[in-house]
Amino acid sequence: MSDGQIQTEHIHLDADAIDEEQISHAAQVLADGGLVAFPTETVYGLGANAFDENAARRIYEAKGRPSDNPLIVHIADVSQLDEVAKDIPEVAQTLAERFWAGSLTMVLHKQPTIPDATTGGLSTVAVRCPSNPIAQELIRKSGVPVAAPSANRSGRPSTTKYAHVVEDLDGRVDVIIDGGDAEIGLESTIVDLTVDVPTILRPGYITKEQLEEAIGEVRLDAALLGGTGGKTPDEAGRDGAVGQTGTAASDTDAGLHPKAPGMKYRHYAPKGDLYLVRGSEGDVVRCINKLASAAQRDGKTVGIIAAAETKERYRFGTALDIGERSDEEAVAASLYDVLRQFDALEADVIYAEYQGGSGLGMAIENRLLKAASYQVIDAPKPMQSSRRRKIIFVEGHGNARSAMAAALFERLYEGSDMEAVSRGIVVQFPEPLNQKTEAVMVPNGITLEGFASEQLKDEEIDQDTLLFAMEERQRQQVIAKFPAATEENTHLLSEYVGDELEIMDPYGGTLQTYGICFEVLRATIQKLSDRILEEKTL
Ligand code: TXA
Ligand code: MG
Which of 49, 266, 417, 489 has an alpha carbon within 20 to 30 A of 480's alpha carbon? Predict the structure, then answer.
C-alpha cells in the first residue's frame, strides 16, 4: 500500500489498561523527533515534538500537506499551557476549566519557543488538551507539547479508526498506535481567542451554545455563516477546515498570514464527486433516486449517503447509512468512515442527504459541505400541476392488498404530484382495514387510522389515472365494468413492473401469509417507483 520507506511500528493499546512499556517507547520516539500517530477522542492525530522544527516538517511530508498550514499543539494538562502560549486571556482559563480535557482547540498568542514550522509562520498557536487517556499519557511521557494534525493524507477524510490510519500512513511514519475507534469522529471545535470577540473558526462537538454559556458572546467566523462565504463554489471547495479570506483580510497582517491558512486547501474530500441534496425527506429521496439512476445509466459507480430511516428507499447504486438522522452523535461518529468506504468502492459520484442544524448539526453540515466542495442540489419540489396524477390499486374488497400497495406507494411519494388510493371492485358497504393486513403494516411503521374501503367509481378515472390490479382476472373485470378503465390505463401490477407472478391473495391465510404478501408488495412498489422515475423527467 505504502510508497514510503519507513518501517512503521504498530502498537495496540487498551485505553483502560495502557501498557506502560509500549507507551513509554512511543513517547520516546516522539521526544527523539519521530512521528507517532495516536488516537484522540475526536479523530486520530499525527504527532511530533512541537518544539522540534524538523519533526514538524516531517509531518507535512508524511501527510503530503502544504507546509504553511499550521498544526494544533496538544498538551497533557492545562499547566502546560504557558509553555506554548503567552498573554493568555481570562476567557482561555475559563474555557480550559470547563471543556478540557476535551475537544476544544483555542487559538492564542504563541510563545517564541514554538517554531514557525509548527504554526505555519503564524504568531498564534492552536492548543488543545485531548481527553483520550492514550493521547494524554503519550504527551505526558514525551515531556513535550505535541504538534498533531489529523492523521490522514492531505485531502482525504480524517481518520477515525486504526485501519484508516494504516491505510493512509503505514510506511510513512515511525509508530501507529491502535487505540480503537474515535468516540466523537469529527475534529475539535476551534475558537480564536486573539480577537475582541471569541470566534469559532471550525464548529465541532463543543457547540457555540456551550461556549456562550461559559464566556458570553461568541461569534461564528464569517465563512461558516454564508456557506460559501460569498465565493464561487469552486473557490470555496479548495478551502480548508477553517476561516475564509474575509477574516484574513480584516486582520492586521492578513496579506502575509491569513488567519485560517487551512482554507486554501481542499479538505475531507472523498475520491468521488460528492453532491449534497437538500429538501424535504420525500423530495430528497426521489431526487437522489432520479440522479443515481441517470448516473448509473451513464456507467458510473454510484454511492448514496443515507440515514438509517431512508436507506431502504434507495434503488440505485450503493446506499450506506450514517446513522439515524435524529442521532447526531452517531452521524458524526460514522461520517468519515462512510466517506472512506465509498473510496474503497471506487464510487465515481456520491449523493448525500443534506444534514445541518445547530449544535453538533452545524459541525456535521460544515464537514459535509467541505467534502462536497459546496456542491448542493435543491431537490425539486413535486410538480405543481393543477391535477395530481392518480394511481388506483384495485382488488375485490379494496381493504387488503390494494390498501397495502397504496400505503407503500404513498410512503415513497408523500408530498409529490403522485397520489395513490385503494379501491374495491365491489364494495357494498365501507369496511375497515383487514385485520391481518393491519397487523403486518403496523410493525413496518404504516398505520391507516380510520380506513374505510371504497368502491371504485368511473368518474374518478381520468386521463391522468393509472389503475393497477393484483390479478389478471380482476384487471379484466375492471375493464369490463368501468367504461373509463381501458387496456391502456389498467394494468396488472406485477406485469407492469416486469414480474411474472401475480400478487397472491392472502385471504384466509395466516399472519405469515399476509407478511409475505406485504414483502412482495414492498418490492413490487419499489419497482413501480423505479419505472415511474425512468419515465418522468426531473
Ligand atoms: O480534533 C482535532 O483538532 C484533531 C486532533 C488530532 O486533535 N486535529 C486536527 O488538526 O483536526 P488539523 O491539522 O487537521 O486541523 C487543524 C486546523 C487547520 O485547519 C488549521 O488551519 C487550523 O486548525 N489552525 C491551526 N493553527 C491555527 C492558528 N494558529 N490559527 C488559525 N487556525 C489554525
Ligand atoms: Mg485535518
Answer: 417
- Other residues' Cβ atoms within 10 Å of the Cβ of residue 522: 15
Contact 84 CB / ligand 1 (< 6 Å): no
Residue with cell 474503497: 344
194 lines ligand 1 (CB under 6 A): no
- The percentage of the chain sitting over the pLDDT mark of 70, rounded to a whole number, equals 89
DSSP 397: S
Which residue type occupies 274?
A: L
Question: How much distance in Å is there from the Cα of 381 to the middle of ligand 2?
Answer: 36
CA dihedral 121, 122, 124, 128 (to 10 degrees): -60
Cis before 126 (ω within 30) = no
User: What's this model's pTM, rounded to 2 decimal places?
Assistant: 0.75
Q: How far apart are CA 104 and CA 96, in angstroms?
A: 8
Whole-number Å distance, alpha carbon 181 to ligand 2 midpoint, is 17
Note whether 271 and 343 are within 8 A (CB).
yes
**Which residue in 413, 465, 420 sits closest to 290, CA to CA?**
413
Residue having the nearest C-alpha atom to atom 27 of ligand 1: 126
Q: Who contacts 123 (Cβ-Cβ below 8 Å, separation ≥6)? A: 109, 110, 253, 257
201 lines ligand 1 (CB under 6 A): yes
Which atom of ligand 1 is nearest to 122's Cα? 29
The CB of 188 under 6 Å from ligand 1? The reply is yes
Query: What's the pLDDT tens digit per position in 127-180?
Result: 999 999 999 999 999 999 999 999 999 888 999 999 999 999 999 999 999 999
Per-residue model confidence as pLDDT tens digits over 381-409: 765 444 568 899 999 999 999 999 999 99
What secondary structure does DSSP assign to 8-23, as a single string? Answer: -EEEE-BTTB--HHHH
**To 5 degrees, how large is the angle CA 500–CA 503–CA 505?**
140
Report d(CA 225, CA 227) in Å as an integer.
6
Residue with the smallest CA separation from ligand 1 atom 12 is: 149
Site to probe by mutation for ligand 1, drawn from 41, 44, 72 as the one with most ligand atoms within 8 Å of Cβ, is: 72
182 lines ligand 1 (CB under 6 A): no
How is residue 464 written as a grid cell? 391522468
- Around Cβ 473, how many Cβ atoms within 10 Å? 11
| Length of the chain measured in residues | 538
List of residues 6+ apart from 76 with CB closer than 8 A? 129, 136, 137, 139, 140
Ligand 1 pocket test: pick from 105, 138, 256 the residue with the most ligand atoms within 8 Å of its Cβ: 105
User: What ligand is nearest to the CA atom of residue 200?
Assistant: 1
